[in-house]
Design goal:
This protein is α/β, with parallel strands linked by helices and 389 residues long. It has 2 domains: 72-295, 3-Layer(aba) Sandwich (Aspartate Aminotransferase, domain 2), CATH 3.40.640; 298-386, Aspartate Aminotransferase, domain 1, CATH 3.90.1150.10. The chain has 15 helices and 12 strands. Helix 5 (95-102) runs parallel beside helix 12 and helix 6 crosses helix 7 (143-150).
């Protein structure tokens, strides 16, 4: 079953690549000095430019990105890596070993992916076989559940508690009740979209409360923004040899969302199980950039500091106006609007501000990513128009 899924996935990717190659090789005559060649090579390219202009004009507070982008040392490293852009077996800066060293594990504990999203898919392909189910809360980062449904797997979803935390006893009960059907347990920590953490004690409670052979996937995409003293990374459980998979990403603090690099940290045995489902599609530029990004601690501290300051300022202002905002340990926050959130999202978009999508069942709650100071000022100005006092 594993190999059939792996072949099917790769077959699709190969077909898509073949189609793109055909388009790329289609003959196009370009005359020297032809200033209009782009419009002939790419029909509608002026429309594409208009779309790009519209996108650039938005205050982008919808995808939990780092709005400042890669730091100067990272840009320099990626620029130097362009010389490998035509090569397959290029030097990659030792990125996997650098990630391993940075997190205090061995190279054999690391699996790279094109963003942590790919790693989440790889986990699904590996462990949701033969009708297995994923156990997790709702709402959370729904990519895991979407992927499960795409491979004919199912999910057991536990509602958040009244204070928007994850219900650890309920996750334990559901896992034990459905033990023979469970492929893995999913824990997003801090949780997206609620922004709340699961404490170190609760993580241990979960791991000790379920059968030891059940894999637990812990998504730590927002780890770098946490201030909660009760929180801790779960990497030590990997070192202990537990069946734990930690996912991390360079898309948040490091500002590299569009060039895609994520990774798993797990036991060598778990990594070996997952590796056949990995596409190996990580590009040369992001590998070199990632090594430089981990070394640039000054940039990390700068981005973290300004992000948390702007987040806390926005939350205080909204609370002063009487709005409930869920305590956040991330680079976003979630607030209760008292209105259907899709209408609120549309109203913001009409004012040039992109905010987060609906997260059922919390359909009166709005998720807002932290942008630059100018973007947050635009958000507050739009908010006061949409919700006049």
């Amino acid at each position: 079953m594993h190999s059939e899924r792996g072949v099917s996935r790769r077959g699709f990717i190969s077909s898509a690549a073949a189609g793109l190659s055909y388009l790329a090789l289609a003959p196009v005559a370009i005359r020297a000095g032809d200033s209009d060649w782009r419009n002939r090579v790419l029909p509608g390219s002026s429309l594409l430019q208009e779309e790009a202009d519209d996108y650039d004009a938005l205050a982008k507070l919808n995808f939990n990105e780092n709005p400042y982008g890669p730091s100067e040392p990272v840009l320099k490293a990626m620029t130097k890596a362009f010389k490998y852009s035509m090569r397959y077996g290029y030097p990659d800066g030792g990125v996997a070993s650098a990630i391993a060293k940075h997190h205090g594990v061995a190279r054999s504990n690391i699996l790279l992916g094109a963003g942590s999203g790919e790693i989440l898919e790889v986990v699904g392909l590996t462990f949701l076989d033969h009708g297995k189910k994923v156990v997790g809360v709702d709402p959370t980062y729904g990519s895991v559940y979407v992927h499960a449904s795409g491979i004919d797997a199912d999910a057991i979803k536990i509602p958040l508690l009244g204070d928007y935390r994850q219900d650890i006893p309920a996750l334990i009960d559901a896992t034990n009740k459905h033990y023979r059907e469970v492929g893995f347990v999913y824990l997003c920590n801090p949780n997206n979209p609620s922004g709340r953490t699961v404490s170190a004690a609760e993580v241990r409670q979960l791991l000790d409360g379920i059968p030891e052979d059940v894999p637990v996937l812990i998504d730590e995409a927002y780890h770098h923004y946490v201030e909660d003293p009760e929180y801790a990374t779960s990497i030590p459980y990997v070192i202990e040899g537990r069946r734990v998979i930690i996912t991390r990403t360079f898309s948040k603090l490091f500002g590299m969302a569009a060039i895609r690099l994520g990774f798993a940290i797990s036991t060598p045995e778990m990594i070996d199980l997952m590796r056949p489902y990995s596409t190996g599609s990580v590009n040369a530029l992001v590998k070199w950039g990632a090594v430089a990004a981990m070394e640039d601690t000054e940039a990390q501290q700068r981005v973290r500091k300004v992000t948390l300051e702007l987040r806390n300022k926005a939350i205080r202002e909204l609370a002063t106006m009487g709005y409930e905002v869920i305590p956040s340990e991330t680079n976003f926050f979630m607030m209760r609007t008292g209105r259907p959130v899709q209408d609120v999202i549309t109203a913001f978009r009409q004012r040039g501000v992109a905010v987060g999508r609906p997260f059922p069942p919390m359909l009166e709650y709005l998720r807002v990513s932290i942008g630059t100071e100018e973007e947050m000022l635009r958000f507050m100005a739009a908010f006061k128009e949409i919700f006049p006092q």
